[in-house]
Design brief:
It contains 12 helices and 15 strands. It is α/β, with parallel strands linked by helices. The chain has a 5-stranded mixed sheet. It has a 5-stranded mixed barrel with strand order 11-14-13-12-15, surrounded by 5 helices. α7 (about 290-300) packs parallel to α11 (about 415-425).
Length: about 500
């Protein structure tokens, strides 16, 4: 028989805050049980049996299709039935969970059932951020971990709900959220590894780039914000969880734990932090659709309000000039990394709220409008390929396909980021800057490229940040469009 924490009775709640408090009780009790057992195991104690603690769950039951009228694209279930999801990290997701609970109560008037699920918490997901006690185990004791504790089970972490392939077995509840608790925990750990920063620092608006030049400028702007005592941002966080507080604000205990890493992680992240988490996270994803898929797979569990790609592209039209902008309104997907999860016949629509914010931001930052704005920014189809040397293929067949698609620009990441935004119901957008025109003999040369980057990066980044200001001011509820809903969508945003 497994060694379990003391039993906690299932409870019913008509208050979202009380339901969240009960989730905390269950989760904290489970973690305390696992950590205590692990400390004893590391100390050499022979545990009398396998140790187990399970995630909390929240469940609702409704018997009618009727619900309160709501302008939102989330916050309600589609019809009668039992709906349930496992939950994790109520400390990190407190605001998110509380809002989802409130909306369910508002939409259906039903009670929220909170209890202990049958889904084990893997030992690896029970460690605190700076716990490394397992490192002192001998190889023999490390092997014995498998007999004494639950390890991550990939079968509990698939993306079938998000992909629309999940099938509910007879008698089983329907899902309330896109991600199960183990899937969320898995991604939180991956985020630390890939970005070098803790999930707690990630903000609800995310910028992606494929060039370090943009990160250098973001770091400069971040430190400038911290020197301004009137800045709307409270802190700037860099890889290694290195925290710079806004001028006039005292350091906090967590700041002392940060240290610059000896080398940058694979996809370093930087965070301009606001009190309500509506600041800006910027990540250098590097080159290629594989990286773009990897990082968005994991950031998606944080349920951001929007993510956008700011990067460089090849201009495919002779009328374009180096430095012109391309606002993507459609995508040709030759990235191949999402073909299994999201078939190519699925269209990836442009989202009006993001498009309008980016166009307005370009106009404001460049101080252009009308015909002048149209000369420097083209709206059109962006093609993304996984072949960096597509120009060298025999008879250049990609060129013919790109022409047939009416593409105006080519890169390697934008379609992937947009497609994963569509797949995970995260509003998305793309604004690229033309850095070369390979079809017209204008290729990147070192001196020309460096001059171009210095000229354009600052303006491009300020456009992206201004677009976020516009989206934030417009209200995040408008961002989560009904365009992203499937026929039987989950209730959680």
């Amino acid at each position: 028989m497994p060694l379990l924490p003391p039993p906690i009775a299932t409870t019913q709640h008509t208050d979202a805050a009380a339901a969240l408090a009960q989730v905390r009780v269950i989760y904290d009790a489970g973690l305390a049980h696992l950590r205590n057992a692990m400390q004893r195991f590391v100390a050499g104690e022979d545990l009398s049996g396998p140790v187990r603690a399970c995630y909390p769950y929240v469940r609702v039951h409704t018997e009618t299709v009727a619900r309160a009228d709501s302008p939102l694209a989330y916050g309600f279930v589609e019809g009668p039935g039992h709906f349930e999801t496992t939950l994790t990290r109520p400390d990190l997701f407190a605001g998110y969970y509380a809002e989802q609970f409130r909306l369910l109560r508002q939409s259906h008037g039903v009670s929220l059932e909170v209890g202990v699920s049958s889904q084990p918490i893997p030992l690896h997901f029970s460690f605190a951020e700076h716990d490394h006690i397992e490192g002192s185990l001998s190889p023999t004791r490390r092997l014995l971990l498998r007999d004494r504790f639950d390890l991550p089970d990939l079968a509990a972490m698939d993306d079938g709900i998000a992909n629309g392939t999940h099938r509910v077995r007879a008698g089983q509840p329907q899902p309330l959220a896109l991600f199960t608790a183990p899937r969320v925990d898995y991604s939180l750990h991956r985020l630390r590894h890939y970005t070098g920063t803790a999930p707690e620092w990630f903000q609800n608006f995310v910028l992606f780039t494929n060039y370090q030049f943009y990160i250098d400028e973001f770091v400069r702007l971040g430190h400038a914000e911290m020197a301004n005592p009137d800045s709307e941002y409270l802190a700037f966080v860099e890889p290694g969880n290195v925290v710079t507080r806004r001028a006039g604000l005292p350091a906090e205990a967590i700041d002392a734990l940060g240290a610059a890493p000896p080398r940058l992680p694979q996809m370093p992240a930087y965070h301009l932090v606001r009190a309500d988490r509506s600041g800006i996270t910027m990540t250098n994803i590097g080159v290629g659709p594989s990286n773009a898929k990897t990082i968005t797979d994991h950031i998606a569990v944080l349920r951001p309000h929007a993510w956008m790609m700011l990067g460089h592209c090849a201009g495919l039209r002779n009328s374009q000039q180096l430095g012109d902008y391309v606002l993507a309104h459609a995508y040709v997907r030759e990235d191949h990394v999402l073909d299994e999860e999201l078939p190519l016949w699925v269209p990836i629509p442009a989202l009006a709220e993001i498009q309008l914010a980016l166009q307005q931001a370009v106009a404001e930052v460049t101080r252009m409008d009308g015909p002048a704005l149209k000369r420097i920014m083209r709206t059109g189809t962006v093609a993304s390929t996984d072949n960096r040397n597509w120009e060298l293929l025999p008879e250049n067949e990609p060129q013919r396909r790109f022409s047939q698609s009416r593409a105006v620009a080519l890169d390697m990441e934008s379609a992937t980021i947009a497609a994963n935004g569509f797949r995970f119901r995260v509003p998305y957008g793309t604004l690229l800057c033309v850095s070369d025109k390979p079809l017209h003999g204008e290729i990147k040369l070192p001196g020309m490229a460096n001059h171009f980057y210095r000229e354009r990066v600052d303006q491009h980044l300020r456009i992206g940040m201004r677009a976020i200001d516009i989206l934030r001011a417009g209200g995040v509820d408008r961002l989560h469009s009904r365009k992203l809903r499937s026929f039987a969508e989950v209730a959680f945003q």
